[in-house]
Amino acid sequence: KTAILSGFSDYIKSGRRGVLVVSELFGTRKYLQHLRQQAQQLGIAEKVRFVGSIEHAQMADYYALADVTISIPASDGFPQTIYEAAACGSFLVLSDLPQYREAVRDGLVARYISPGDSDALAAALVWVIDHPGERAEAILAGRAYAARVADKRAQDTLMCDVYSELLRPVRGQMPFRAAIVAPSRGAKCGAGGRGA
Questions:
Q1: Which end of the chain is least crowded, N or C, by CB within 10 Å?
Q2: Residues 6+ apart with CB under 8 A from 59
Q3: What gap in Å lies between CA 24 and CA 20, rounded to an integer?
Q4: First-residue to last-residue Cα distance in the chain
Q5: How confident is the model over 97-121, as pLDDT tens digits?
Q6: How many angstroms separate the CA atoms of 113 and 120, rounded?
Q7: In Å, how far are 8, 53, 71, 76, 169 from 28, measured between CA atoms?
Q8: How far apart are alpha carbons 126 and 44 in whole angstroms?
Q9: Which of 8-12, 156-160, 171-175 is least confident?
Q10: Minimal CA–CA distance to 141: which of 177, 97, 108, 98?
């Protein structure tokens, strides 16, 4: 997050307005103190809000209020953040990681930067704010994208189909029967096919 603070500082110093909201989830006391000191040293402390650990139920409110959601780690699996922020209409600034590129098209729903590149972050923030038309298109595209690929019920059904195919008896072998419970709707899948 130190690169985020530096990039945000450069963005503010370019004459732009904004507030950076920082979740303190998983931050150690020492690390968070370091971030507060950095914000003070950069002269942006009054523009940075440390909001504690945000309850999952409140995340949508934060994403909906944000023009931009920043996620620029050096490595990552595939965070739920991308789906949540896109579904709530927040433009994404992301690390240029292969797993992110597979999911989100650059320039439409996200801007990609090298992890830790605060200059690129400042430039991406300026681009997002200076292109309100593209940002409006991104909101629509992001919501459609999240609805298409992050629908839990659709993913549960897909997973049930995959397991059903894997558990289908092979000719000449004794059939293996199993039931899989899809937690979001209690669907049961087995070797016989898709659950209800």
A1: C
A2: 84
A3: 13
A4: 45
A5: 887 777 676 556 788 999 889 999 9
A6: 6
A7: 22, 12, 19, 19, 51
A8: 17
A9: 171-175
A10: 108
> What is the CB neighbour count within 10 angstroms for residue 63?
18
User: Among residues 134, 132, 120, which one has the least CA distance to residue 8?
Assistant: 120
Q: How far is CA 14 from CA 9, 119, 121, 174, in A?
A: 9, 12, 13, 70
User: What is the tens place of the pLDDT at every residue in 118-139?
Assistant: 999 999 999 998 998 888 888 8
One-letter amino acid of 131? H
User: What token pair was written down for 39?
Assistant: 């914000």
Q: Three-class SS string for the chain?
A: CHHHHHHHHHHHHCCCCCCEEECCCCCCHHHHHHHHHHHHHHCCHHHEEECCCCCHHHHHHHHHHCCEEEECCCCCCCCHHHHHHHHCCCEEEEECCHHHHHHCCECCCEEEECCCCHHHHHHHHHHHHHCHHHHHHHHHHHHHHHHHHCCHHHHHHHHHHHHHHHHCCCCCCCCCCCEEEECCCCEEEECCECCC
- Kindly report the length of the chain: 196
